[in-house]
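Researcher: Quick test of sequence recovery. Tokens follow.
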């Protein structure tokens, strides 16, 4: 009889172990006693199956055979023994995993930082750009000129010639037109209004 290194702390475990020791091949006994090498998480590990891990497998198989809604079911011994051979023989089933140095393998727990709620940035007082300041300055100057021009236009001592506002008293140009030139006819008119205070140059 082949000796298997399987712990038995329950009566049913002893029955399964005894069956396996009387029926397994030397190759299967070697798998049970020493485990098999597998690759998991990019590491070489030793997969050792135990009677505890087999019982978890057997319970899952029994649930599949139980009638729907049943809390328990009866399984024949030969079916359970067949599950035992199958479980320990097939490499696809995972038991307890150990590192190559014999220590129990514990998978690394990946810690992910909790996602922070998205908060909208507080609106700060936006500093105006140089261009915006220039626009403001231009607008202020234009507004001031418009106000001044309206005040001048409402004055009875002012006349307009070619878009220029001129004081009747002094002949001073009070607002400038894009071109500050007068034709001879307008100059003569201005001179007569100013009672010949203005001299004309040919």
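Model:
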């Amino acid at each position: 009889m082949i000796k298997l290194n399987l712990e038995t702390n329950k009566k049913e475990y002893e029955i399964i172990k005894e069956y396996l020791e009387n029926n397994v091949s030397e190759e299967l006994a070697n798998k049970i006693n020493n485990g098999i090498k597998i690759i998991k998480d990019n590491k070489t590990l030793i997969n050792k199956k135990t009677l505890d891990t087999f019982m978890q497998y057997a319970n899952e198989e029994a649930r599949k055979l139980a009638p729907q809604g049943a809390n328990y079911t009866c399984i024949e011994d030969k079916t359970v023994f067949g599950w035992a051979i199958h479980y320990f023989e097939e490499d696809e089933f995972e038991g307890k995993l150990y590192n190559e140095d014999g220590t129990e393998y514990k998978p690394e727990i990946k810690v992910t930082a909790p996602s922070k709620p998205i908060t909208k940035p507080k609106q700060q007082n936006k500093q105006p750009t140089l261009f915006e300041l220039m626009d403001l300055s231009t607008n202020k100057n234009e507004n001031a000129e418009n106000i001044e021009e309206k005040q001048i236009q409402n004055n009875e001592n002012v006349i307009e010639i070619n878009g220029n506002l001129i004081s009747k008293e002094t002949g001073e140009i009070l607002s400038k037109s894009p071109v500050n030139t007068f034709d001879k006819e307008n100059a003569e008119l201005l001179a007569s209004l100013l009672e010949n205070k203005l001299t004309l140059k040919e």
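The CA atoms of residues 28 and 90 lie 10 Å apart.
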